[in-house]
Protein 1
Amino acid sequence: MSDKSPKPQEPDTDVHDDPDEPAFEWMKPASSGATSAAGNSAPADAATKAQPAPSTGSQPASTTGSQPAASTGSQPESRAGRKAAEAAETEPEPPLFAGSSPAGKPTGGASHSEPLPTSALQVRPPEEEVARRNAEREQAAKVKPLAPRIFQVLLAIFFPIILLVLAVRAVASPLFLWIEYNRPGFPGDGYGFSTEDRMTYGSYAVDYLSNWAGPRYLGGLVHEDGNQLFKDSEVSHMADVKLVILSSFGAGLLLIILSFIAIMYLRKKSDGGVRRGLFAGSIVTLVIIIGLAVLAVLSWQQFFTEFHRIFFASGTWTFSLEDTLIRLFPGQFWVDAGIVIGALVFLAATVTFILTWPTRRRRGLGAKSADADETADVEAGTADPTKESAITKR
C-alpha cells in the first residue's frame, strides 16, 4: 500500500447518538458488577457477531484491541422490555402492608406510611364519651318491655270484676236460695206461701236468670187457683234482670279467657309478672269492696236504690208487698245476698293478697343476695371451704 492511497476511516464508535439501538448496548460501560458466566454467554456471542469487521492495512491495532470482547449485562430482546427492566431497577416495589419495607421488615424513623383501614378502631374515645355510652347501655338494660307491663295492668283490672261476677253467680243459684229459706230468722210470707212453695216458685225465677228461655217461662206460671203467678210488670223486670245477669256472665267469661292469656304470656316473658298483676288486683279489689261495704252499712236503702237506678229504668223495679217477687225475695234476702257477695269477694282478694305478697323469696332477692355474698367472700379471700365447694359445684 503506498503512502498516497487514502487512509481508511475508522468506524464510528460513538453510541450516544442512538442509545436505544440494541446493537450498541455492548459498547456502554457496565453499570453493575460482573455476572455469572452462564448468564452472559449468549449476549456475549450476539455482541461478538454484531462487531464490525476490522479493516486491514495500516489500521492501528490499538483500535481493534481496545474493543471489549463481550457485554457484561443481559440484553433485553426489545425496547419495551428494556424500559420495564430499567423501571424495575429504579422504582422499588411498594410494600404489601403499611409500615413495612418491601422485604417485609418494619420501617422505622419518621417515614410516612398509609394508615390501615382498621387503625381507627385502636383509637379510644374520650372518657366522657365512654361514660355516656355506658350509662345509656345500663339505662337500656334497666328499662323493661312495655307488653308485660300492659298485661300486668290488665290482669289487675280484670281480677276484681271476675271475682264479683263469680260471687254473683254463686248467689244466683238454687243452693243459696235453699240456705236462705231454711236459715233461722228468715222472715216468712204473710200471704200464704210456705217454705216449699217459696222454694218451688223461687227456683223458677232463679233458673230463668241463667237459661235461654223467653218471658213465657215465668209468665205461664199459675197459682193453684188458676191465677197468673207473676204479673206482666214482674215478668218484664225479670227479663231486664236476666239481660244484666247474662251480660255480666258473658263479660266475666271473656275476662277469664283474657286473664288466662295474660297469665300464660307473663309466665313466659316476665319473671314474677303474674304475681305482681294479681297482687295489684287484690289491692284494687279490697279497696273497692271495702268502699262499697261502708256505703251499704251507712245507708242500705240508699245504696240499694242507686244500684237499681244504674241498671234499670225508673219505675220498672218497684212493686207492692202483695206481688210475688216481693213475697219470694223480701228485703232481707237482698241484704243477705249483698253480705255473701261482699264476703266472698273480700275472702278471695285477701287470700290472693297474702299469697302474692312480695317477700324476698318471691322476688328472688334471697338467692341473689346469697350469690352476691359468696362472690364477695371469694373475691376477698375469706370464703369458707363449704361455700367454695358450693360455688364449685354450681
Protein 2
Amino acid sequence: MEQRTVGRSGLRVSRIGLATHTWGSHTDTDDAAGQLSAFLEAGGTLVDTSPAYTGGAAQHMLAALLGDLVSRDELVLSGCAGVHPVTAAAQADLPAAPRTWIDTSRRALLRQLDRTLIELGTDHLDLWHVSAWDARTPLEEIADTLEHAVRAGKTRYAGVRGYSAWQLASLAACAPIITAHAPYSLLARGAETDFVPAAMYHGVGVIASAPLAGGILTGKYRDGVPADSRGADEATAAEIRHRLDERATRVVDAVVTAADGLGTSPLAVALAWIRDRPGVSSMIVGARDIGQLTGVLAAETLELPRAIAAALDDVSARTD
C-alpha cells in the first residue's frame, strides 16, 4: 500500500487507514484480529482508535492484539482525547444521560492520554488528536497541552478532529498540529469550501472520515435497506435514511455505472475518488468483518480515469 507524507511533516502513513469504531459492537474479537492481520499484510499502517469508541471496548480489543498478534512498531497508532465516555453505572442510574461528554482542558486531555497509553501497553502514540471543540478551554491551553505531550514523548505528532475550518485555523496558528479529521465523501463535500483550503494553508494533512457516507456509496441501499446494514440499526437508521435523498440517488447511480465500466465495485470507486482529492493524506475506513475489509483494500490498486473522476465531480457537486 502506498505511503503518504502527512501535511508539512515527516510522518508517512498508508493512504487507507483502518477504523476500529465498530470493534466491540458489530465486530467481535476474531474479526478484529483478522482485520488487523489482513490490513498489515496489505501494507497498511495507520490504525485509528479512541477511548470513546463503543464505550472503550474498541480500544480494549486493540490492546489485546498489540504484541500478541502484531508488533507495536508496525503500526502508526492514532488516538484521541477530549470526548469522554459516560460510565455504564451512570447510564444505568440516568437512562436519559448522554453517552459522552466533552472536556479538552489540560487536566482532562493528559489524564485520558495517560490512561490510553496504559491500556494499550505502549509508551507513545504516533498521532494524538483533540477530538472535539470545547469553547470553555482557551486555545492557548490546548496548544500548550499538545506541545507538552509531544515534547514529553507521549505522542510523536498531534492533530484535531471535530473542528470547523475557523477552529482548525485558529489552533493551527499556535499549536504543532499536522492532521485534521473531517467527514469527506462524494456525498459530503462541504469540507472543500473552507476546511481543506485552511488545512492546506497551514500545512495540515486532511484525514477523510466516513468516506463511504455510512455505506450509502457502496450501493447497498439502492433496492431497500438490508437487514444487516447500518440503515436497519436503530442507533444509526435515522441518519442513514435522512441522507437517502434524490442527490444521493444520482451520485450512487453514477458510482455504480463507473464501477460496472471499470469492472470493480462501487465501494472501490468511491474510495479511489476521495483518496485522490487535493489535501487528503489518508482516509479512515471501517469494516464489520474481514469480507468487507477485503473490498476496502481492493480500492488501493484502482486508478480512476480522468474522465470518470471528472464525471463524479460534476454529479456530486454541491448546489447550495
